[in-house]
Amino acid sequence: MAHATETLRSVVLGVGSYLPQRCLSNADLEKMVDTTDEWILKRTGIRQRYIAAEGEMTSMLATKAAEDALKAANISAQDIDLIIVATATPDYTFPSTATQVQAALGITHGVAFDVAAVCSGFVFGVATADKFLTSGSHKRALVIGAETFSRILDWNDRTTCVLFGDGAGAMVLEARKSEGSVADRGVLTTHLRSDGRHREKLYVDGGPSTTGKAGHLRMMGKEVFRHAVGMVTDVMTDAFAATGTTAADLDWFVPHQANERIIDASADKLGIDMAKIVKTVSLHGNTSAASIPLALATAVKDGRIKPGQLVMIEAMGGGFTWGSALIRW
Ligand code: UT7
Question: Are residues 103 and 121 in the same domain?
């Protein structure tokens, strides 16, 4: 009768990352707009960010991160039957960036598609993949967050251009039989939210159906900041309630890396030990959907995140969209 309680879980097999070669420091930005290293560091925690080379597209960053994740998972691209790319900076209006990654990896079976949730995209991707895998319809997923925000920044607007960077991160998930307990490995719970009334606080002023051009990112930073902490702590509280866990049970808190002050305030509100926070915002800037998998890959590669540990990821971004996922690594 043991089978009656058996369910499917999406278990993390590996994570990977890729950053473009060119590193842009705060000092470099001082020469481009009226800003200072001191202002950027104090207000955001960012020291540097990476910028994609000319001709280096989101799908190329995504493919490199995917290859790194497949290597870490010790599986072949042919073992993947679901690819989800979270991006707000696709190569083209269509086809999806995910299908370009699929082709670059030499995969001709299964399905590939993009999700659009801006900075929350990776959490939305993990939640979507988890639904596919735990339904039994698909076996192994690549969830990728990849962005080239440098292409949609207004490089004359100091209030936004200093904040963002390019990069990609990827995660391989596999459907495995599980007893379904909180102690078992895999994605334990996901909580996604959106509220379209907040569009004008963070948006891009163009697109295929409006201006016919890609447009530039516009943000009311203070307004976004004001909403962010409440929204992300709400969905983390939902994750704790759904699993009967508390902040004290977490081994690692891996938030979206937009602003160190938002990260610290969120952890403080929920009583998460500051020593458990993985922060990469100083090194990568805000890479939107790529920020969480880049941070995960950093903390796995340096030995902090280990199998069996409890990891909380969360993000908030344009839309607004926000979400959390609690994962037994
Ligand atoms: O990933 C999606 C979610 N996005 C976010 O989470 C971003 C959320 N927002 C933020 O992180 C912060 O609001 C910012 C970092 C964008 C801005 O920090 P802030 O403490 O809210 O500053 P502020 O916008 O109130 O600006 C303060 C001052 C202003 O000058 P006045 O009006 O006080 O004279 C700005 O004009 O700082 C000025 N300022 C700058 N000064 C130097 C704005 N940008 C810069 C700059 N360098 N780059």
Answer: yes
